[in-house]
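Please fill in the sequence for the structure shown.

STRUCTURE ENCODING:
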C-alpha cells in the first residue's frame, strides 16, 4: 500500500466534521432508530467509565473482560461496537467468533497504562530476568494490557488477572514458580502481593525506560518484579486527598480502586475492583457517607443513582479518563450509520498467532 492509499484509508477511518454539528436530540434519535433496525445483529457493550451519553445506548455495561465475555456469548450479534478503549476491543475480538466484527468507534481511545508496556521493552526485560533469576519467574499481566503482551504472557506459561481475581491469580502463580513478573500496573501488583503477605522489601520495580531494576536490596531476595506502569487516573488520588476527607468529613468512609498507590490504599477504609466498589455502595445503608477513589464518570453515575447517600469523589478536581472519553455520541452515531451503509470503520482485528497465545493467558485465568 503506497502513501496515498494509507492517507486515504486514514481519512476514511475518521469521523466527518458534520457529525459534530448535530444536536444531541437528533443524534440520540438516529442511534435509537438504527438500533431498532439492526436488532440482534448489533451489540453495544459499554464500559463503566464511559460517558452517560454513550452508556444510555449500551446493551450491557461492565468491566473490560466481563464485556468481552458477554460479547462472545452473544452469538446473534454480527457487529460488536465496543464502547471502551483499544485493549478492551482487542480482548473482545480474541474471544468472539471469526464471523463477528469488533469495532471501536474512535481509534484514538487508547489506554496510557496499556501503552506503558510494549513488546520490545517486555522482551528486553525478560532477557535480563532470565539472566538474573534463571527459570524461576512466571509472568502475569493485568487484562488492561495489549493483545501482544497477553500473548507474550501466554506463551511463557503465565496468565492474565483482573482487579477482582488478582489475589487468587498471584497465589496460583507462586505455586508454579518462585517469582512473578507483574505488568503493566505496578500499583495493582504491589497492593495484591502485599495483601497476600509478600513484604514490600521483596518487591523490585523494573523500569522499562532505563531497562534497569529500581531496588536497593539483594535481588536474590526479590519475589515480585513490578513493571513501572500505572493508571493515569488512579495515580492522581493522593494521601493529601485522604487527609482532607479525614479532616473535613471524619465520619465518611473512603473506598478506592487497587490501581491507586500503596500509600493511598493503606490509608483507605476499603479497596476493590470497579464491580466491588459498585456493589459496596449498592449494599450500603441509606444515610451512609462515601468518598470514592475511581474514575469520575463512574463516580458521578453512582452519585446520581444513590440520592439517599452522601457520596463524593476522593479527589474533587479529578477529570474523567480522557482516552475513554474519546468515545462519544457523534462517534457512536457515525459508526452505526457507516454500518447501515455497508461500511465497517475502525475494525479491531488481532493477528491469529497473537490471539492464539493471548487465549492461553486468558484461559489459564478463567480455569482457576
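FILLED IN BY: designer on duty
SEQUENCE:
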Amino acid at each position: 500500500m503506497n502513501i496515498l492509499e494509507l492517507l486515504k484509508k486514514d481519512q476514511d477511518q475518521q469521523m466527518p466534521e458534520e457529525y459534530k454539528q448535530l444536536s444531541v436530540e437528533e443524534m440520540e434519535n438516529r442511534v435509537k432508530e438504527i438500533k431498532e433496525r439492526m436488532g440482534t445483529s448489533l451489540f453495544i457493550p459499554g464500559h463503566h467509565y464511559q460517558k452517560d451519553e454513550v452508556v444510555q445506548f449500551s446493551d450491557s455495561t461492565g468491566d473490560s473482560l466481563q464485556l468481552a465475555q458477554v460479547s462472545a456469548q452473544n452469538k446473534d450479534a454480527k457487529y460488536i461496537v465496543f464502547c471502551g478503549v483499544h485493549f478492551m476491543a482487542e480482548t473482545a475480538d480474541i474471544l468472539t467468533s471469526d464471523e463477528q466484527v469488533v469495532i471501536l468507534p474512535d481509534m484514538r481511545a487508547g489506554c496510557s497504562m496499556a501503552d506503558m508496556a510494549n513488546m520490545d521493552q517486555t522482551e528486553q526485560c525478560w532477557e535480563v530476568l532470565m539472566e538474573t533469576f534463571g527459570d524461576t519467574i512466571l509472568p502475569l499481566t493485568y487484562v488492561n494490557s495489549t493483545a501482544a503482551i497477553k500473548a507474550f504472557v501466554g506463551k511463557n506459561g503465565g496468565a492474565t488477572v483482573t482487579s477482582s481475581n488478582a489475589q487468587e491469580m498471584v497465589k496460583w502463580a507462586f505455586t508454579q514458580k518462585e517469582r512473578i513478573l507483574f505488568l503493566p500496573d505496578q500499583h495493582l501488583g504491589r497492593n495484591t502481593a502485599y495483601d497476600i503477605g509478600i513484604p514490600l522489601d521483596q518487591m523490585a520495580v523494573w523500569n522499562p525506560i532505563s531497562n534497569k531494576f529500581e531496588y536497593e536490596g539483594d535481588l536474590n531476595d526479590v519475589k515480585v518484579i513490578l513493571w513501572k506502569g500505572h493508571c493515569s487516573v488512579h495515580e492522581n488520588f493522593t494521601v493529601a486527598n485522604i487527609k482532607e476527607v479525614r479532616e473535613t468529613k471524619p465520619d465518611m468512609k473512603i473506598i478506592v480502586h487497587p490501581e491507586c498507590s500503596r500509600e493511598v490504599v493503606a490509608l483507605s477504609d476499603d479497596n476493590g475492583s470497579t464491580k466491588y466498589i459498585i456493589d459496596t455502595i449498592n449494599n450500603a445503608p441509606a444515610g451512609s457517607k462515601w468518598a470514592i477513589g475511581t474514575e469520575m464518570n463512574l463516580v458521578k453515575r453512582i452519585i446520581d443513582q444513590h440520592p439517599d447517600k452522601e457520596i463524593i469523589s476522593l479527589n474533587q478536581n479529578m477529570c474523567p479518563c480522557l482516552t475513554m472519553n474519546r468515545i462519544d455520541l457523534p462517534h457512536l452515531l457515525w459508526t452505526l450509520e457507516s454500518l447501515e451503509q455497508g461500511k465497517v470503520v475502525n475494525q479491531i482485528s488481532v493477528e491469529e498467532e497473537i490471539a492464539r497465545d493471548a487465549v492461553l493467558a486468558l484461559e489459564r485465568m478463567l480455569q482457576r
